[in-house]
TrEMBL record:
Membrane topology: Multi-pass membrane protein
Family: Belongs to the UPF0718 family.
Pfam family, one: ArsP_1
Organism: Anaerovibrio slackiae
UniProt KW keywords: Cell membrane, Membrane, Transmembrane, Transmembrane helix
GO annotations of cellular component type: plasma membrane
TM regions (residue ranges): 48-66, 86-107, 119-140, 146-165, 209-227, 233-255, 267-285, 305-326
Location of this chain's protein in the cell: Cell membrane
Name the record gives this protein: Permease
């Protein structure tokens, strides 16, 4: 039953076969890179779209129970390591990209929450959530998905603790501009209002995310069918000692959330790129994208911003090397 769920429900292998069947009627050959690219694009776009809508609706419904005001109240009851852990876990039920998480981060800094807790939330929110875990399961299996979630939470907690120990609160800038309203009244919603909230949030998020999903699928189709495997492995394979830092650097200029990063990671996975390099790329895309860093520069002084970048990048590279060594 577990294999059936993984392969046919989450993995949608039936959809892959159906797409090849339909393309076969047009004379498609599975050995052709052109038809292979078309199949990859159609199959991944449909698969991700189905998962995206259903999972975001589910997570948005859960999120309606954790609006920022309630999250602040929960976090104020914890300190030290426990506070960073709770903040990282709460990040898993919040918006799906770093640029959406930053307004909540700003609200937390305004409320005077400890620096470590706010950064633990900021790191985990775009990187780790239930929807991304289920989607990762559908592409890479349960083992990879669980590993990604665990190391993402550990990075968030560790980064928050380190920043808290460094005592850099004075390097947060005052930010008085308006930020997005995340339905602060939602903790008092009835069930009908929660369903409406989930539907509305799903529509907004899918509309914003879908162009990046299409871009990610297109990049994945190109990598999988047109770039020779030996070229990819020469850059990101275990044979290159700098593969993990390179994967991290490659991920920074790519602006996407986890859903846009998955098809790129899938193409690298199919090219036999090791797990550590794939993890480094995905984490860099979701937490260190240039647009989110530009937004953060409006809230953080340069010293704190570069400290944040250094800690997260070092953590990502360490995780990448560790998993390349062990897997």
């Amino acid at each position: 039953m577990f294999d059936f769920i993984m392969q046919e429900i989450l993995g949608m292998h039936w959809l892959s076969e159906l797409v090849w069947l339909l393309l076969g009627r047009l004379g498609a050959s599975q050995a052709s890179p052109v038809w292979g690219s078309i199949h990859f694009f159609i199959y991944d776009t449909i698969k991700i779209s189905i998962l995206l809508v259903s999972l975001i609706f589910f997570i948005s419904y859960i999120q309606s129970y954790f609006p920022p005001e309630r999250t602040k109240r929960i976090l104020t009851g914890f300190t030290g390591v426990k506070g960073e852990v709770i903040a990282a876990l709460l990040g898993t039920v919040t918006p799906f990209c770093s640029c959406s998480s930053i307004p909540i981060f700003i609200g937390f800094t305004r409320a005077g929450l400890p620096l470590g807790m706010t950064f633990a939330f900021l790191i985990s929110s775009p990187m780790v959530d239930i929807a991304s875990m289920l989607m990762l399961m559908s592409f890479f299996g349960s083992g990879f998905a669980v590993i990604y979630v665990v190391v993402g939470l550990l990075l968030a907690i560790g980064g928050g603790l380190l920043l808290n120990v460094m005592g850099m609160e004075r390097h947060i800038r005052r930010y008085d501009n308006p930020v997005r309203d995340f339905y602060s009244e939602s903790e008092y919603f009835n069930q009908r209002q929660r369903m409406g909230y989930a539907c509305n949030d799903t529509r907004i998020i899918v509309k914003n995310v879908f162009p990046y999903v299409l871009a990610g699928v297109a990049i994945g189709a190109f990598l999988h069918n047109w770039v020779p495997q030996e070229w990819i492995l020469a850059v990101l394979g275990k044979g290159n000692i700098f593969s993990v830092p390179l994967a991290t650097l490659i991920g920074i200029p790519i602006y996407a959330d986890i859903f846009g990063a998955i098809p790129i990671a899938e193409a690298l996975y199919l090219a036999s790129v090791p797990a550590g390099s794939i993890l480094a790329l995905m984490m860099a895309i979701t937490t260190l994208s240039l647009p989110s860093l530009i937004m953060l520069s409006k809230v953080l002084e340069r010293r704190l911003l570069f400290t944040f970048i250094g800690i997260v990048a070092a953590g990502i590279i360490l995780i990448g090397y560790l998993f390349n060594l062990l897997m």
